[in-house]
Amino acid sequence: MITLKTLIIFLMTVPAFADTSKPTLSFAAPVEISGESLGQYLYLYADDNKSESINTLPPSNDARWTPSESTVPNWWVYSGAMWGRLDIDNPGQGRIIYIEYRWAPGNYITLYQKKDGGQWVGETLGDKVSIKKRSIPHRYPIFQVRLQPGQNRFYFRTVTDDFVKMPLYAWSPKAFASASGIEYWLMGALHGVMIIMAGYNFFLYVKLRNREYMDYVLYIIFFGIFGATMQGLVMQYVPYLPQHWKTDKMILTAGLLTLFFSGRFSIHFLDLRTNLPVAYRNFRWIMAVAAFSLSVMAFVPLGVMALITLITNLWFYSSVFTVGVVISMRRVKIGYYFVIAWTLLVVGDLIMVVDYVIPMASWAEWGALVGGAFECLLISLALGEKMSILKDQALEVKIENNRFKASMESAKAIQDALISAPKSGQKIELASHYQAAEETGGDWFSIYHIEQNNRLYVFIGDVSGHGLPAALVTGAIAGSIQTTIYSEHIQGLALEASLREIAFFADKIVRSVGSGNHMTMGFIAIDLSSFRMAYLNAGHPHIYISSEKNIWPAVVSGAPLGHLKAFDIKVFDVMPGDLLFFYTDGLLENTGPEGQQLKQRELRRLLEKLTSPAEVVAAVEGKTNQIWQGTPPADDCAYFSLKLVG
After folding, report:
1. How far is residue 243's CA from residue 65's CA, in Å, rounded to a whole number?
2. What is the rounded distance in angstroms from the CA atom of residue 369 to the CA atom of residue 382?
3. What's the number of CA atoms in the CB half-sphere (13 Å) around residue 105?
4. Dist CA 185 CA 176 (whole Å)
């Protein structure tokens, strides 16, 4: 069975069959050395058990030393120790050079060189070694070595929990200081862009309370931490973090949180739940994997976690790019920003990720940071564009609302006109109250005095529901009744027959409207000459009649309009001075803040001993105000009191 070790050694030794010699590496003074790659000059040795020391290594002619064919030897996730042997020729006088190990997550990297007396002396650096112990406090481990005249031999030993590689570069101190200054300036500028964009979007979140802005702020923060840790900045500038959190766990934690919040942002920014349900579910899975990985990180080897994070990252890249293209194809403007921004980030991050596994070049580590800075700028512009779109939509909604409000005001004026009563001094006294649950409602009442036959017609109704649709049905009914009662045909009918005719036409109107509407209604006709009252009830709450001696409910059964099959009419005798009280069900069904309601017995008690309509309405208003306590009504409410003067 082929083991991982056998495969690695085979891949590393195949090129050696053709040519096992290495070109001579020579650093002659005073030539400046500017980041000379050392990887291709190395001979490599795999110490699977981490048992070898500098004094027990195989001799240089041992076949286990294999020549490197890469500028950055890389053994992926490897549990052993990787050794490298390097020979540098110095034809001139002794000189100081720096050897840079450009790999922040490396736990331990040890350089061995011979000192005076011929003894091998080792210096160990890496993210598991405090920055305070470094002779050169740089974001990457920097070894300061003295090249003696002639041949100089060095050994390197690297051990880590993550990808094991040996990215070694040589510098002269002056060239290193110059290049390092430029690098720090560039990193400051790129991270500064992300910090500014995070602050800008946080300000927008505070103002607008739109969660996608906060998702993007968190994405920028964790992406910035991820990049800063990969580049060793956290190791250099955040020394108070626990040592084991400096790089490996910080990179994985920040990377997984970046994936989580970038998934949330994509879902909300592009409204994927509505626009692309399949993509929405896909991003939810990515977020779930990221969250699960975070929860089990403490129990899974870091190398395995690094592979899971890498695969999830590639999954996210392919998903976000696909979604961006699909949205752009729909000619959605913010989709163009989205696809360009994420393309830049994906390309830059892929360069860094590929270099993470298969080393490309020293500049590849900048891919994610550069792509991320441009992505932050473009996505912030896209958020601004979306805010502009939402502002335009809000303006359109406002204009439409104003139109609707004007229409509702017109409808309310029409509805108010439908609520009619005879002028004062015409056989009755009247007081009323009306409150709609919305601008308009479905409750309605009208009172007509027909002088030709000295009759008083009283109508009260309640359409199912409330708002404009109910008001429209009410208007149709009120118009029908008003037309009907003034017709010569109705005036020529007997009291009961006139009510049947009016109810018949009202029922027909409700049936024709359809859409499940129905209307409860009370029809009353009073002959003011004989004070004989006919009452037809179409499912409406009964009326109360109060005389000097007693108060009683006039109970008549009947189905609501729209379902009316028979017209049951009862006749009552009333007297001048009697009070009649009419109401809709909202009076008893609307509730206060704790669900309290006006009860029938309380209503009846209020009506006792009151002698005028104004007193009745005032008493009912006072009681309902006490019960409802300003709670907005759930249903329309209308009631009125009528006194027969004689």
Report:
1. 33
2. 20
3. 23
4. 14
Burial of residue 151 (number of CB atoms within 10 Å: 0-12, 13-18, 19+)? exposed
The whole-angstrom separation of Cα 43 and Cα 70 is 11
Query: What backbone torsions phi and psi does residue 351 show, to the nearest 5 degrees?
Result: -60, -45
CB environment 4-36: b (16+ within 10 A), e (fewer)? eeeebbeebbeebeeeeeeeebebebeeebeeb
pLDDT score, position 362: 61
**Which are the contacts of 51, defined by CB distance < 8 A and separation ≥ 6?**
none
Amino acid identity at 443: D
User: Are 225 and 133 within 8 A, CB to CB?
Assistant: no
d(CA 528, CA 438): 37
DSSP state of 148: P
Percent of residues in the chain assigned helix, strand, coil, to nearest 5: 50, 20, 30
Show the 3-state SS of 113-143: EECCCCCEEEEEECCCCCHHHCCCCCCCCEE
CA gap 142, 265 in Å, rounded: 39
Q: Which of 128, 73, 71 is nearest to 104 (CA)?
A: 128
- Give the single-character DSSP code of 110: E
Burial group, residue 410, by CB count within 10 angstroms (0-12, 13-18, 19+): exposed
Cα atoms in the 13 Å half-sphere on the side-chain side of 597: 14
Q: What is the β-pairing status of strands 532-538 and 443-450?
A: unpaired
Is the separation of the CB atoms in 283 and 319 below 8 Å? yes
Single-letter residue type at 184: Y
Q: What is the full DSSP assignment across 37-90?
A: E-GGG-EEEEETTS---TTTSPPTTSTT-EE--SSS-EEEE-SSEEEEEEEEEE
Give me the phi and psi of 151, to 5 degrees please: -85, 130
User: How many other C-beta atoms lie within 10 A of the C-beta of residue 265?
Assistant: 24
Using the 8-state DSSP alphabet, how is residue 529 labeled? T
Q: Is 248 helix (H, G, I), strand (E, B) or coil?
A: helix
What angle, rounded to 10 degrees, do the helices at 367-418 and 248-269 form? 30
Instruction: Show contacts of 55-60: CB within 8 Å, 24+ apart.
Output: 55/120, 57/83, 57/155, 60/85
- How far apart are the C-alpha atoms of 100 and 474, rounded to whole Å? 87
* Dihedral of alpha carbons 561, 567, 572, 575, sign: positive
Compute the half-sphere exposure of residue 76: CA atoms within 13 Å on the CB side of its CA: 12
How confident is the model at residue 472, as a pLDDT? 73
Contact 114, 147 (CB under 8 A): no
Which residues does residue 554 pair with via DSSP β-bridges, in sequence order? 543
Question: What's the token pair of residue 222?
Answer: 């964790």
Task: Work out the angle at residue 231's Cα, subtended by the Cα atoms of residues 287 and 171, and round it to the nearest 5 degrees.
Answer: 160
Summarised one tens digit per residue, pLDDT across range 55-75 is 999 998 999 999 998 888 888
Round to the nearest angstrom and report the end-to-end CA distance of the chain: 115
Intervals of the chain under pLDDT 50:
1-20, 423-425
Q: Put residue 111 in one of left, alpha, beta given phi > 0 → left and psi -120 to 50 → alpha.
A: beta
Q: What are phi and psi of 120, to 5 degrees?
A: -75, 130
- pTM recorded for the entire structure: 0.56
Closest alpha carbon to 83 in 105, 61, 68, 71? 68
Give the list of residues 6+ apart from residue 153 with CB closer than 8 angstroms, or none.
Answer: 85, 86, 87, 113, 114
**CA–CA dist 623, 596 (Å, integer):** 12
Give the C-alpha separation, 640 to 599, whole Å: 17
Cα–Cα distance for residue pair 337/493, rounded to 1 Å: 77
